Amino acid sequence: MVTEEHITAFGWATPQDLDDIVALTLRVNDFLFGLFLGCGIKLIDFKIEFGRLYEEEMVRIVLADEISPDSCRLWDLRTNEKMDKDRFRRDLGKVEEAYQEVARRLGILIDQGPGDVRGPTTLQ
Fold it and tell me: Average pLDDT of 53-72?
C-alpha cells in the first residue's frame, strides 16, 4: 500500500497536489453519482487517474482518464443487475448489451440516426 507520506517522500506529488486530487475526486464523485442516479443506475465505485498539465510556468492537476463501464461499477437501481465490466469478469454474458443500456440511459447511444440523440432520461 502506498500512503500519502510515501507519495510526498518520493516526490511523486506535493501535499498541495494531493489536496487538489482529493478535491477533484470528490467533485467527480458528486457529479457521477447524480448523473447515474438520474437515469436509474447506482454508482458503486470507480477509479480515476490524474496527470499534470504544464502551461508555461503553471502546472495543474487534471483528470487524465476515461469514465466508462470499464472504470466504474454500475448496477441497475431497481434490480441491482450489473451493468459494467463485472459482467465480463464474472462470465455473466451480455457485456455489450449492458454497456449499450448504460449509453442508452445516458442519452448518448444513437439507435436510429443523428437526429435521435437526446439527453439523459430521468426515471420517476
Answer: 90
